[in-house]
Amino acid sequence: MARDAIIIVALALAAAGCSHATAATRAAVEPSASVSESMHGLAGHWQGTVWETGGSFHQGNTPLDLQIKDDGTWRGKVGKGDASGTARLDRRGNLVLSGLAGGHEPVSYTLHGDSARRWGAIVGDFQGRQEHASVSLKKTE
User: Fold this and answer.
1) H/E/C letters for each residue in the chain?
2) pLDDT by residue (tens digit) across 6-45?
3) What's the rounded mean pLDDT across residues 95-118?
4) Total-model pTM
5) Domain-by-domain residue ranges, the chain?
6) Is it true that domain 2-140 has CATH number 2.40.160.90?
């Protein structure tokens, strides 16, 4: 139980630290290659899940079904809602997905991994509750 609490606190601190980046910090991690060059290996169909990792009695989850294009855009479903936005690689090789789901819910995922699998920790909305969550995506082809 104590180990789980330490992991939750570590994820919360990591998420809080990432959400307060300044414009200068964000500019420093922008990709140096063009969008089409950096996104070429990640373009395709991706499926996965966002699942709640907090200490709630009910663990929420949301399916993801996304199509990432070479031009740095993505479209698909987050849960039952249509979603779209932009995709890019930062200098560390993380896939950064941003956009909107369901027309108004912000999507902001920074995912580690390679050309076949991506994962990361976020803060997401679960039926009106802001909770820590994990994201996992797998490229399907």
Assistant:
1) CHHHHHHHHHHHHHHHHHHCCCHHHHHHCCCCCCHHHHHHHHCEEEEEEEEECCCCCCCCEEEEEEEECCCCEEEEEECCEEEEEEEEECCCCCEEEEEEECCCEEEEEEEEECCCEEEEEEEEEECCEEEEEEEEEEEEC
2) 445 444 444 444 444 434 434 444 444 444 456 788 999 9
3) 93
4) 0.70
5) 2-140
6) yes
